[in-house]
Design goal:
about 290 residues, alpha/beta, Rossmann fold, 6-phosphogluconate dehydrogenase C-terminal fold, 6-stranded parallel beta sheet, 9 strands, elongated
Length: about 290
């Protein structure tokens, strides 16, 4: 299969960016994948064979690219949008992999000017507790949902172009309103990460921390797996989606308080009631 895209630029070549580069190259969907990171990630990804070109600047990376993918942390997005605006090819389409959408869309609107019409907000629902290009996996997106979160002014043909590209790496592409996106992902991702960090921190700070490491089983490992993720990245995500995360935290706190109150009162019926409602929902999750 001849590549449908001659050059694609990835800005931010950590786990997500490097995995996308590897997947696109393996699929033969892109003739040349160029990458830029302010640290050594792009050079590492090039050495690992995930990139064709590791660039020293945003302008170098996006030159000649018909697609530009921002896969950097959400706090880095505003500056990247500002840097790429004047370097974009006239017909280039821009998308991103940010875990939050409203702030990223606002940053793009401020920075891109007329090119904002060629921006398709996105979010791959894939990842790992590992980070960096060393952890890249070309199968990371296969059979995983990739959300596009267009605004009212986003042309449908640009959404379709991004969808076709992402389908080459096995992603299942669908759309979601960006405001609803941030509320939903506070519930299913952002606050759950905080819970995993919090539980891990509570155990680590207790007098049985070492014994917990020695004797814990799969239950604790499964419950806290995402607590091994990047602390800095997840602090930024929670702060960026602060209001929705606080709303999720309030519901979580109320449920925890109900469990503690039932335990203090030795109220088995109340405990079973809370746990049963939780179990019914969890079983639907699959």
């Amino acid at each position: 299969m001849s590549p449908s895209v001659q050059r694609l630029a990835i800005l931010g070549v950590g786990l997500i960016g490097a995995s996308l580069a590897a997947a696109l190259k393996r699929a033969g969907a892109v003739a040349q994948v160029a990458g830029y990171s302010p640290n050594d990630d792009a050079r590492v990804a090039r050495a690992l064979g995930h990139l064709d070109v590791a660039c020293d600047s945003v302008a170098e990376a996006v030159a000649g690219a018909s697609f530009v993918v921002l896969a950097a942390p959400v706090t880095a997005m505003p500056e990247l949008f500002a840097q790429l605006r004047d370097a974009l090819e006239p017909q280039a389409i821009v998308t991103d992999c940010g875990s939050t959408k409203r702030s990223v869309i606002d940053a793009a609107r401020r920075a891109l000017g007329e090119a904002f019409l060629r921006y398709v907000p996105g979010h791959p629902i894939a990842g790992s507790e590992h980070s960096g290009p060393q952890a890249a996996d070309p199968d990371l997106f296969r059979d995983r949902r990739w959300l596009l979160c267009p605004v009212d002014t986003t042309p449908q043909q640009h959404c379709e172009a991004v969808k076709r590209l992402l389908e080459t790496v096995g992603a299942q592409v669908s759309t979601l309103d960006p405001v609803l996106h941030d509320r939903v992902f506070a519930e299913v991702s952002h606050w759950p990460h905080a819970v995993a960090f919090g539980l891990s921190a509570a155990i680590a700070g207790g007098e049985l921390a070492e014994q917990a490491l020695e004797f814990s089983g799969a239950g604790l490992r499964d419950t806290t797996r995402v607590g091994a993720s990047s602390p800095a990245m997840w602090a930024d995500i929670l702060l960026d989606n602060r209001d929705a995360c606080l709303a999720s935290a309030a519901r979580h706190r109320a449920t925890n308080e109900a469990i503690v109150a039932a335990l203090e009162a030795r109220d088995r019926e109340a405990l079973v009631s809370v746990f049963s409602a939780a179990s019914r929902w969890r079983n639907r999750l699959g």
